[in-house]
Write a structure and sequence with these properties.
The chain is mainly β. The protein contains four helices and 40 strands. Strands 15, 16, 17, 19, 20 and 22 form a six-stranded antiparallel β-sheet that branches. The chain has a five-stranded antiparallel β-sheet with strand order 2-5-10-7-8, with no helix packed on it.
Length: 470
């Protein structure tokens, strides 16, 4: 279950504070402590004992000469006075396992008196709810690798507030030729001083394997400078360039014009293909895709669809209002499903629910849902005191759960008509179909005009893996 528990983490409005002057502009918080003991902070956060979290904030400017101290409180009671320290600027992350059940956890930031510090992108993600294992959360680097594999895109700099949504990793089959690089996605990314103009192709998600990148030789050819796989950037030293992915990863190819005279520079016959040997150039073409709807996954377990179209279902969903419920003490007990039962009472079942937080049956509390050792659904919700009212209220609340026994649906994917493709640049005067792309290099004086022209004339689109949220 994807989640991000800090509302206003993008600093759309100023946060709470004490003896501290705060202001926000362009989603950046500026905080100046005005007296000793002053701080700004975030309150009202729920933490679950035993759950593992990713805490992240970007420190964009630091006026304090000493480290900025972050303290953790719960309902006003100090839990840890030195929970974290922010030294130099940059992205600050911490993975931690909560030792408390907190209904009003608070993170307070203590800077230097009369010193201004600036922040962006404050996040707190419950990695346990996301289904990450202890190995995958052993370090931030391990989490970034696992995140990319799980969701198909790198860990974002910021995720908007989301108390919990079920993510369905729908299977998509993309029908393409041997050239995997869509030249029509090439776009100007930034222009810096000294006439440096950087371009990049849209990132693409590739399966594990060995790939080779090639381009045409000749005069006035601009060069491809580097390739980024996930979080690692490698300079391209020679041609053709080969690389290996040990696991699925995103790949972005970049080029730059950094010196030379004003004039026309070409980037021709760029091809990314599987294998170790560069073959004859073919234009990229996209013959469409086959998408299987309603596939679910939690943690490392997921529904699958093979190339024949058969769907292996390891998960099912149920409207909780359709089940038979009884009240046993303070726990509502639901029957009528066949879930995979945890081997131990303190083990978390593979379940997800938008209304209730999953937990093991040994530690169930108000607001939790669990699978019992007898295969029943357990829910604690103090808002209801009888089974009939609870059953009515559960209508439209869905639980996704791992099945005790997987099933197979034999389906036939729809046939698709494909056609030969080509490189495409879309301009105000029409579509240009060509195997060659031309990029114009200009001096510093002409950069501003070029950027405006480029933005006006080129329709840039990004094609990538999409995770549908329900």
């Amino acid at each position: 279950m994807l989640n991000q528990l800090i509302d206003n983490g993008d600093f759309a409005i100023a946060p709470s504070k004490y003896n501290c002057s705060v202001s926000v502009a362009n989603n950046e918080l500026s905080a100046t402590v005005t007296a000793a003991g002053g701080y700004w902070g975030k309150t009202g956060i729920e933490l679950v004992s035993g759950h593992t979290y990713l805490w992240k904030i970007d420190l964009t400017e630091k006026g304090s000469s000493s480290n900025i101290r972050v303290a953790l409180y719960n309902n006003g009671a100090l839990v840890d006075s030195g929970w974290n320290y922010l030294g130099v600027t940059g992205e600050k992350t911490k993975i931690f396992t909560s030792s408390i059940n907190a209904t009003n956890a608070q993170f307070f930031f203590y800077g230097g008196v009369n010193k201004t510090d600036k922040y962006k992108a404050f996040m707190l993600i419950d990695l346990t709810l996301c289904g990450f294992t202890s190995d995958e959360t052993a370090s931030v680097d391990a989490l970034k690798t696992a995140w990319l594999s799980k969701y198909g895109y790198p860990l974002p700099q910021y995720i908007p507030y989301n108390a919990g949504s079920i993510v369905s990793n729908n299977a998509t089959y993309q029908l393409t030729g041997k050239n995997l690089l869509d030249a029509s996605t090439l776009a100007l990314r930034d222009v810096t001083g000294g006439g440096v103009m950087r371009y990049a192709f849209a990132p693409i998600l590739l399966p594990a394997g060995t790939y080779i990148l090639s381009k045409a030789a000749g005069t006035n050819q601009c060069y491809l400078t580097n390739i980024t796989t996930g979080y690692t950037t490698t300079s391209i030293a020679s041609w053709p360039f080969s690389f290996t992915l040990t696991e699925p990863n995103t790949v972005m190819v970049r080029t730059a014009l950094e010196s030379g005279s004003e004039g026309q520079y070409n980037l021709s016959n760029v091809q990314l293909e599987e294998g170790t040997t560069a073959t004859t150039y073919e234009p990229f073409h996209d013959g469409g895709s086959i998408v299987a709807d309603s596939l679910n996954g939690i943690g490392t377990v997921a529904d699958e669809q093979d190339a024949s179209g058969a769907i292996i279902r390891r998960f099912a969903s149920v409207d909780l209002g359709d089940l038979s419920w009884t009240l046993s003490g303070s726990i509502f007990v639901g029957a009528g499903i066949s879930p995979k039962i945890p081997t131990m009472a303190h083990e978390l079942a593979n379940i997800a629910c938008a209304k209730y937080i999953p937990i093991d049956s040994n530690h169930i509390a108000n607001g939790n849902v669990a699978i019992s050792s007898g295969g029943k659904i357990w829910i604690m919700d103090s808002a209801y005191t009888d089974a009939a009212t609870f059953t009515t209220a559960m209508s439209g609340v869905y639980l996704v759960y791992e099945l005790a026994t997987e099933t197979t649906d034999a389906t036939t994917p729809a046939s698709l008509t494909t056609q030969k493709g080509y490189n495409l640049l879309r301009t105000v005067s029409g579509d240009i179909q060509s195997a060659e792309i031309s990029i114009r290099y200009v001096t510093d004086e002409g950069i501003a005009d070029l950027v405006d022209t480029f933005k006006e004339y080129v329709d840039y689109r990004i094609i990538g893996a999409i995770n549908a949220e329900h």
